[in-house]
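As a warm-up, study this chain.
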Amino acid sequence: MTPSHAALEPSPWVRRWAGLLPPSASVLDVACGSGRHLRWLAGLGHRVTGVDRDAAALAALEGQGELIVADIEAGPWPLAGRSFDAVVVTHYLWRPLLPAIVASVAPGGLLVYETFAAGNASVGKPSNPDFLLRPGELLEAVRCAPTDDWRVLGYEDGFLDAPPRFVQRIAARRETLSAGAAPPRYPL
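Now compare it with the structure written out below.
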């Protein structure tokens, strides 16, 4: 029997970059499901917002933060006009939402995105190309943002073991440099 999604540890990619968040950061977890990242980030003292279409999964997260039941693939983006110190997305891809997701990162904020990539069909599911990132697609989503103030902190596109899968992931900061200011230093 496999553990439930809620019982899983947070993604190492999310854990790696969460240390860059200021105390009590506002964090959006897109397609949060049963909330493994939402719970972990709330436990670190961050103000979390989760959006998912599964009302039952969100009901189990009651008290963790702001929870929004919405079918983000069939309806309007429920967070239009809002921005967050960080936006986290794992194991989810709906290409029409990429611009809205990127736009939801506040100046100075962090985008942490990780999902399946081209090649995954050779090792399992998902195998539908509609749900597999094309090479460089996350980089392109940041580079095509209406603002040109993005700094890519980390990017990977390749194969991971245990379980075997092809993934693409990015961590990018929306910079807020004033004229002549030195860029912030990031831990590696």
